[in-house]
UniProtKB/TrEMBL annotation:
This is SSD domain-containing protein. The chain crosses the membrane at residues 108-125, 409-425, 430-450, 456-482, 494-518, 530-549, 611-635, 1053-1075, 1082-1107, 1113-1134, 1200-1224, 1236-1259. Keywords: Membrane, Transmembrane, Transmembrane helix. SUPFAM superfamilies: Multidrug efflux transporter AcrB transmembrane domain. One of its GO terms (cellular component) is cytoplasm. The lineage of its organism: Eukaryota, Sar, Alveolata, Dinophyceae, Suessiales.
Length: 1311
């Protein structure tokens, strides 16, 4: 402290009186330093020195025991944290003994603690497994979740009719083999000459889906298409891609990976020159530098010819291809802006044994993972210019999640660095800071191995940041207590720190852990597992820090030990001279207080004085804010639906499902189907009839865009005769007529046109009396592509073969040959430039009706437009008209023979899982009728069933009599070529033990939880009615759907949040009551915590506008425990301190003069105390003045804040600094929880240092426990017997402001 000279105009008496008044009055926010006036004229008194103790052995001054040889009873000792010890209890003796061992053998203590932890964790250690399925966030307790998990697990373990056959007997029509968690499918094996079927190839498939978003630009834009073609060619030509596709994929299925299901493969074919009628040959490999015209690509795909040639595989469901009418105009609606490509790698894992197949699958997965990790993923992540590339696939999705998680966890380095700096600042030793941080992080693996959860969810990684914040707070408290007890010997110092800091941190750790463990009351299993994991982390952080930190502090203190000068005995810079001078003992060397700490404490003093000046204003404004927060939350709260969004908008994991929903859910190509022809010939439009075959397209150059009605649009080729002569050598003339138009003409018009064309071609040799035969075919041919050579653009037109006509010509000498020619007419489409053709006339003049009639009923529906499970058109069958997009419709599964678990475990996997129902007997005819009735009976219209997938209908159609008494035999026989039977039946020992049916319904999964649950109740009623009418062998059917699970989870979120917060609050209240022994104090802290949680909810719901989902629930519930830490620190110390010690010492300072020995060098240890030879006369003591309750509460609040305020601010700073790095993470769960951690840390710090002091000043409990206040004797009767009733001037009391936490201790001196 600064010294005041005797010449100062401020007298000692007036200065001390002003200091006293300022200290006791809460109305004065001004800080006034005490003036210490040196008293001269007293000669120095020699000081007896105690004998030096051996190194590592400290004086025994902790327990108030009678020393050996002493006859006086133990006196009361007041520790620096305000606790009075009157006798040595067993716990104190134990603590003293442990403290001596820590002081003497710190390294051995740490080694022993390490061995204990290793022995506990070692046998339970397991490698962590990360759960990448984000749907686990909505895994809520309930029948829907239990049934859904039972169905999924039973499906993965399903053994269909072919599962028990020998490998040599696997049928190619859908034979499946379960290999661990993987499924292997069999290809169609060839047959030998003897008719014996060989072992078919076994296929293990991996896939990649790539979606392209052109950002509102048509994908057929020249630049966009070129960019897409170049990117996909680069992807397919990756070395690893080519190696897998050419060497490890079954040869007949290589087309699925190169070129794959890709429109770009057909847009960028390489061209080779053709011969004869073939204009050129296209190789559909996607490796050309320039694309063919888009109309040609679309026409080639649209006209089909193979299952893979289906526009629904490539374009969105709303896309309509342009009409092939020769105009080149797009179809009505927006141009296509998205495109899909899919690639399937059918690894050949054929082997003779099951183990050989397993090895093949393992090698395939390893190879695929390596290629994806090293080549495919980097290229897909880089993308291409002008187009957003979105991707998904086997291992690719989990790789991206893991890569993102790893990159986000790198931010933990910054967080750890911030915490390390804060620890370094507090501990003043780098090695001590590093080891303290390692001890904190050690709690994570210890808690993990003790948690029964199988996998870690993404939110579990938040524990890293939370544990660092909670652990650093504990370290700060221990270090602060250690510094404030620096005047004690080491063993006593260790014991006091363990008793005071340990009790304080134990209270906060148990309360925080109890709040985390309160999540066990939640119905969301991920929240229960996370709460249990965090609760263990908090407890182990406390245990490990308590075990390791005191020994490390002892080692650090020995390294920094200050050895006093032989001629000097360290002493305090000033001391009170009592009436009877007793030579003081030499205290421990003094350490200089850090300037930043001293400045922070001065600010805390000012803060407390201002809060004490107007506590009512602080409380009123806080209550007003809470009301406003509640109103804002009630107005803006909304629920999140579906699986929580883990990644930000625009991330691949978010954008891919959104784009994927725009496409049809058309299944992949059957792996048993051979690929399309790699070479596709394109024929010339002017090729003679009969000279071409297998043409994929017809091509010509445009002569006239679209002719007028007066132009000739029918053209004839040169006449072909055996001798090569002209018409004069022909006896008869045959004509083959083709038409390019927007649609077909009627048969009558075709007959009229053919007849007119042959007459026009015959010219003068045509005679009406002679015979003319016409054969009308009127069938559509491959598309005609008409290219403008000058512009390079092209249009597509439909092409029809009208038929043929033959006319007998008038007799002419030498005319004995049969001649032919071709005629090509164009109606409403551009005219081709046909080499050697001559005009025959105008088409309209040849038609009978002089118009085109588009007769859709004559057109054959292409086979590629139909697929398994397609809806029957309404004209043929009365069907429900869908109102919901197909990608949003719900699939409902009805099952027999499977029992779902009845209960959900509190933590970890369900040991019961599922089982087969022994009462289900599918061989019973009544059971067969019950299952068949579910498919054939008319269900209620309220179920809105669009289509059904029923294996039993397929079986019934194959049998002559149903139900069958030889049911099992029939199933085994017919299931080899029935995919429905193989997928919907479970068999054990050649008997059907379970079955299922699938229903696709016209009800959206995103209409809200209430609507879905109401729709689910319709199915409940329907199933109950069906079971009530079935026999006992099939009356336990139940239904499941993914939508049921999501709906129940959404409803459970609200109920779970409220219940868990209540349980957490009650658990925290119980722990606070246990350690404060004061229900009033516990209630005040609980109300404050609820206020912090309300402010946090306002931050999430109103400020950040987040819908309330699982992540937000985790944030609210988890931080109930986190927000109680700071407030409990303050409340715990407020309940411990008395407040009278400080006031008593100030009165003693007023009554006695002070002797101050100035140090000539402020940076050195102060000189020895020089007591006077004769005590100065005592000043007359003023009359005793008792403080009222409010003034006493002010003093106690001041002591509590000053003792814990620095640690609270340090912990807040470290937590905010560590969590700030979460804000720049990629995963939204980290950014959200990082924002929440920062918000709750700031709110908790503000509440503990501002709001709680104001509340305690106004209505805080008086000193002592509730029993002491209610039942003990009044204070004036016990004033001299204890600290709660200490009388002013008691010489046994010391100044807590100089020896306790938070104020300038007497172990420090000011600059």
């Amino acid at each position: 402290m600064d010294e005041v000279s005797p010449e100062s105009p401020r007298t000692p008496e007036s200065g001390r009186q002003e200091d006293l008044e300022d200290e006791l009055s809460p109305l004065s926010p001004v800080l006034v330093e005490e003036a210490h006036v040196p008293v001269d004229g007293f000669p120095p008194q020699p000081v007896e020195e105690e004998p030096a103790l051996p190194e590592g052995v400290s004086g025994d001054v902790l327990a108030p025991l009678t020393r050996e040889g002493s006859e006086s009873p133990p006196k009361a000792e007041l520790t620096a944290h305000g606790t009075v010890l009157t006798e040595a209890s067993k716990s104190q003796l134990l603590m003293r003994a442990y403290a001596r061992q820590v002081e003497r053998r710190p390294k051995l203590i740490m080694l022993f603690a390490t061995l204990v932890v290793a022995a506990l964790v070692g046998p339970l250690f397991r490698m962590p497994t990360i759960e990448f399925d984000f749907s686990t966030f909505i895994r809520a307790d309930g029948d829907s979740m239990l049934r859904r998990e039972a169905y999924i697990l039973a499906l993965s373990a399903r053994k269909g009719p072919n599962a028990r056959r020998r490998l040599e007997e696997l049928r190619p029509e859908g034979g499946f083999l379960q290999v661990g968690e993987d499924v292997v499918q069999a290809l169609d094996p060839p047959e030998t000459a003897s008719g014996r079927r060989l072992l078919g190839q076994l296929i293990y498939t991996q896939s990649v889906s790539v979606l392209y978003d052109a950002r509102g630009v048509s994908i057929f834009d020249k630049k966009v298409l070129a960019s897409l073609g170049s990117f996909e060619a680069q992807l397919r030509n990756l070395p690893g891609w080519q190696m897998i596709c050419k060497e490890q994929v079954a040869q007949v299925l290589q087309y699925l990976c190169d070129p794959g299901e890709s429109l770009l493969a057909y847009s960028f074919p390489t061209q080779a020159k053709g011969q004869g009628a073939t204009r050129f040959v296209l190789e559909m490999n996607g490796n050309a530098a320039e694309p063919i015209p888009a109309p040609a690509t679309l026409a080639f795909i649209e006209q089909g010819g193979h299952e893979i040639l289906d526009l629904r595989r490539f374009m969105d469901i709303n896309y309509q291809p342009p009409l092939r009418n020769g105009t080149g105009a797009e179809a009505a609606g927006a141009a296509p802006t998205v495109l899909r490509s899919r690639f399937f790698f059918a690894f050949d894992v054929t082997a003779d044994t099951q183990s050989g197949i397993q090895d093949g699958v393992r090698r395939s997965k390893e190879t695929w993972a390596r290629v994806v990790r090293e080549e495919v993923y980097p290229l897909l992540r880089a993308g291409t210019t002008g187009v957003d590339v979105r991707y998904s696939g086997d291992y690719l999705t989990s790789l991206e999640l893991l890569d993102t998680l790893q990159s986000d966890l790198l931010f933990a380095i910054g967080s750890v660095a911030v915490v390390l700096l804060c620890l370094w600042f507090q501990l003043q030793a780098l090695w001590l800071s590093v080891f303290s941080l390692l001890v904190i992080l050690l709690a994570l693996p210890v808690a993990y191995v003790l948690t029964p959860a199988e996998k870690l969810t993404i939110t579990s990684f938040l524990a890293l940041f939370l544990v660092v914040g909670i652990g650093s707070d504990t370290v700060f408290v221990y270090a602060d207590f250690w510094d404030q007890e620096s005047h004690r010997p080491l063993d006593e110092r260790v014991a006091v720190v363990l008793m005071s800091a340990g009790t304080n941190c134990l209270a906060t750790s148990l309360t925080t852990a109890a709040s985390f463990l309160a999540n066990l009351a939640s119905v969301l299993q991920p929240l229960r597992e996370f709460g249990f994991f965090m609760g263990l982390c908090v407890l182990w952080v406390f245990v490990l820090i308590t075990l390791y930190l005191p020994p490390m502090l002892v080692i650090q203190s020995r390294w920094q030990k200050v050895v006093p000068s032989p001629t000097q005995v360290p002493a305090e810079p000033f001391a009170i001279v009592p009436a009877e001078v007793v030579p003081p003992k030499a205290p421990a060397p003094k350490l200089k207080e850090k300037r930043c700490s001293r400045l922070t404490r001065s600010y805390l003093r000012a803060l407390v004085k201002r809060v004490s000046f107007c506590p009512s204003v602080v409380v009123i404004f806080s209550a007003l804010f809470m009301v406003l927060f509640g109103i804002g939350i009630s107005l803006d709260i909304r629920l999140a639906t579906g699986v929580p969004q883990i990644f930000p908008d625009g991330h691949n994991q978010v954008a891919f499902p959104v784009l994927e929903a725009k496409f049809s859910s058309i299944p992949r190509v059957d792996i048993g189907l051979e690929g399309p022809e790699p070479l596709e010939p394109v024929c010339s439009a002017d090729a003679a009839w009969g000279t071409f075959s297998g043409c994929s397209l017809f091509w010509c150059d445009q002569a006239v865009a679209i002719p007028s009605s007066s132009d000739s649009d029918c053209w004839a080729s040169p006449i072909r005769s055996p001798s090569g002569g002209g018409l004069e050598r022909c006896e008869s003339l045959g004509l083959y007529g083709r038409l390019g138009a927007a649609g077909p003409i009627s048969s009558a018009d075709a007959r009229s046109v053919l007849s007119s064309l042959v007459q026009a071609a015959a010219g003068s040799r045509h005679h009406a009396a002679l015979s003319t035969s016409v054969s009308v075919v009127n069938v559509e041919m491959k598309t005609l592509v008409q290219e403008s050579w000058s512009t390079g653009s092209a249009v597509a037109s439909r092409q029809f073969y009208m038929g043929s006509a033959r006319a007998t010509l008038s007799a002419l000498a030498g005319a004995n040959e049969t001649c032919d020619l071709d005629a090509f007419c164009f109606s409403g489409v551009p005219v081709c430039e046909l080499e050697g053709y001559t005009a025959l006339g105008n088409f309209d003049s040849f038609t009978a009706a002089r118009r085109l009639e588009v007769l859709e009923e004559e057109l054959e529906v292409p086979a590629s437009a139909l697929c398994e499970g397609a809806l029957v058109p309404a004209a043929r069958k009365l069907a429900l008209i869908p109102e919901v997009p197909e990608n949003k419709q719900i699939d409902v599964t009805v099952l027999w023979g499977i029992r779902a678990p009845r209960t959900t475990p509190l933590l970890g996997p369900n040991p019961e899982q599922w089982s087969f129902d022994p009462y289900f007997q599918m061989s019973n005819p009544w059971a067969q009728r019950a299952v068949l009735g579910m498919c054939e009976d008319n269900p209620p219209d309220e179920l809105r069933i669009l289509r059904k997938r029923c294996w039993i209908v397929d079986l019934k159609d194959r049998l002559r009599r149903f139900p069958s008494r030889t049911f099992t035999t029939e199933v085994l026989y017919w299931s080899s070529d029935s995919l429905a039977m193989q997928e919907q039946l479970w068999m054990v020992d050649d008997a059907v033990v379970a079955a299922m049916l699938n229903f696709h319904v016209d009800f959206a999964f995103d209409v809200g939880a209430d609507a879905i649950l109401e729709y689910k109740s319709r199915w409940d009623r329907y199933m109950d009615a069906s079971n009530s009418q079935s026999s006992a062998t099939a009356n336990m059917a139940w239904h499941t759907a993914a939508a049921w699970v999501m709906a129940e989870a959404e409803v459970a979120i609200i109920n779970s949040t409220i219940l868990t917060i209540v349980v957490a609050a009650l658990g925290g209240f119980a722990c606070m009551l246990l350690f404060t022994s004061d229900p009033v104090l516990a209630v005040l802290v609980l109300l404050l915590v609820m206020g912090v949680v309300t402010g946090l909810a306002f931050f999430m719901v109103v400020i950040m506008a987040w819908p309330l989902g699982p992540i937000e629930v985790i944030s609210l519930v988890v931080f109930v425990g986190y927000s109680v830490t700071y407030s409990l620190h303050v409340a715990h110390i407020f309940g411990e301190v008395d407040g009278l010690e400080e006031y008593t010492q100030q009165q003693v300072n007023q009554m006695q003069p002070q002797v101050v020995v100035q140090s000539h060098d402020k940076d050195e240890v102060p000189g020895s105390l020089a007591p006077p030879a004769q005590a100065p006369p005592l000043l007359e003591a003023p009359s005793f003045m008792e403080l009222d309750n409010q003034q006493l509460r002010i003093v106690r609040v001041r002591q509590a804040v000053l003792r814990i305020g620095l640690s609270t601010l340090s912990s807040t700073l470290s937590t905010v600094g560590a969590s700030a790095f979460l804000l720049i993470a990629t995963m939204q769960v980290f950014t959200k929880l990082g924002s929440v951690v920062i918000a709750v840390s700031l709110l908790s710090c503000l509440a503990s240092l501002v709001v709680l002091p104001a509340v305690l000043v106004l209505c805080g409990p008086n000193a002592g426990s509730l029993y002491q206040r209610c039942c003990a004797r009044p204070r004036n009767e016990t004033a001299a017997s204890g600290p709660s009733g200490a009388r002013c001037g008691s010489p046994e009391l010391t100044d807590l402001d100089q020896g306790g936490r938070g104020n300038t201790p007497d172990g420090y001196h000011a600059d």
